[in-house]
Specification:
Radius of gyration: 22 Å
Largest sheet: 12 strands, parallel
Structural class: mainly beta
Helix content: under 10%
Strand content: 35-45%
């Protein structure tokens, strides 16, 4: 007997996706609210995996292999865990029945899910993996544009939760934990990462040579190094409206990155709230710095803008942010000469901003 519901015509599939779009979340558990822009579903068929219906596939990959662009593959949780490494090389919607119980276990394979096609919607799964090398194992590997990954639990023993090598993707409403990097953007642009709960990783999210991305309304907590790491020439990114709390080193770590904007974030109870290194023309405005051992510091930075931030208590005079500048560079035989320097927030906020997700 086929498990209810049995019939997934185009109208019903659209209805399911609409339900995913308006989800409610508690920041501590990852329950989050957001509107996601998804490409309209075409007049495709629906293929079923698991359950007891006649003609249902027993593996997710078999269903994908038999699908066509625009089709939907719906996966029941009855047969979970699905011990597979999945390749999505078609523009399809891959939807699980229940996020907590529709489990895909990638074993020791390199990627639990490898997405190589554009216009893929992937949602409502729990991904696990037993890989041991962080640089070889991925929860989701995305190398094509216009993919939406939303409302999933991604929790590997090691590895990288979501690896992006492509532009114009959306990562939203996911719970991402227990990785070396929760999310890693490498040489990619115009991606949107929003409304995720990212915790208990080594680094919550890392940008490397990635420009013009937007990271907003995420909860980034309890990572063992940095909450957010912008590194190696990542420029023109926008980081706003996030809660960045209780990370063991820096809440925000910025190295060799210029023209980024950080505003409206709550940066709380980290070892250092914000660390800038060799970075220029960044804008740091209207953030809450609260409870950090050191709110902010910079090394070898000039021309950054600090304005309207709340610095742990009400202030009526400008806030000085201390750092160092090198006036004579070091070489093989000379250690260099450094001087203490200051940046100034001329208009510190008297009260904390109301920031939440």
């Amino acid at each position: 007997m086929q498990k209810t519901p049995v019939l997934f015509n185009k109208t019903l599939v659209i209805g399911i996706l609409v339900l995913f779009i308006g989800m409610s979340v508690n920041p501590s558990t990852g329950t989050i609210v957001e509107k996601i822009s998804i490409k309209p579903i075409s007049d495709g068929n629906t293929l079923y995996v698991g359950g007891t219906g006649e003609g249902n596939y027993s593996s997710i990959q078999d269903a994908i292999d038999n699908a066509s662009d625009g089709d939907t593959v719906f996966v029941y949780d009855d047969s979970a865990p699905y011990n597979e490494n999945i390749l999505i090389n078609k523009s399809i919607n891959l939807i699980g029945e229940e996020r907590d119980t529709t489990i895909i276990d990638g074993g020791i394979g390199n990627s639990v899910v490898n997405i190589t096609a554009s216009w893929v919607n992937f949602s409502v799964f729990k991904l696990t993996n037993n890989g041991v090398n962080w640089w070889e194992h991925f929860g989701i590997l995305i190398s094509s544009p216009y993919t939406s990954v939303f409302n999933n639990i991604i929790s590997l023993k090691e590895g990288i939760g979501v690896q992006l090598f492509s532009d114009c993707n959306t990562i939203s409403n996911n719970i991402i934990s227990n990785h070396y990097y929760g999310i890693f953007l490498f040489e990619c642009s115009y991606n949107t990462v929003s409304y995720n709960s990212i915790f208990d990783n080594h680094i919550g999210i890392k940008f490397k040579r990635s420009d013009n991305n937007t990271f907003f309304q995420n909860v980034v907590t309890y990572n063992s190094a940095y909450g957010i790491d912008l590194n190696s020439w990542s420029h023109y990114n926008t980081i706003y409206g996030n809660i960045i709390r209780s990370n063991d080193m820096d809440g925000l770590h910025v190295n060799l990155c210029n023209y980024n904007t950080f505003y409206g974030n709550s940066i709380e109870y980290n070892y250092k709230g914000l660390m800038l290194r060799s970075s220029y023309y960044n804008s740091i405005k209207n953030n809450n710095f609260k409870g950090n051992l050191l709110h902010a510091r910079f090394d070898e930075c000039l021309l950054n803008i600090w304005d309207g931030n709340y610095w742990g208590r009400s202030r009526i005079i400008p806030k000085f942010i201390f750092g160092v500048l090198c006036i004579i560079p070091s070489d093989l035989y000379f250690p260099g000469i450094y001087i203490t320097w200051v940046n100034i927030d001329w208009h510190p906020a008297k009260e904390p901003y109301k920031i939440g997700v």
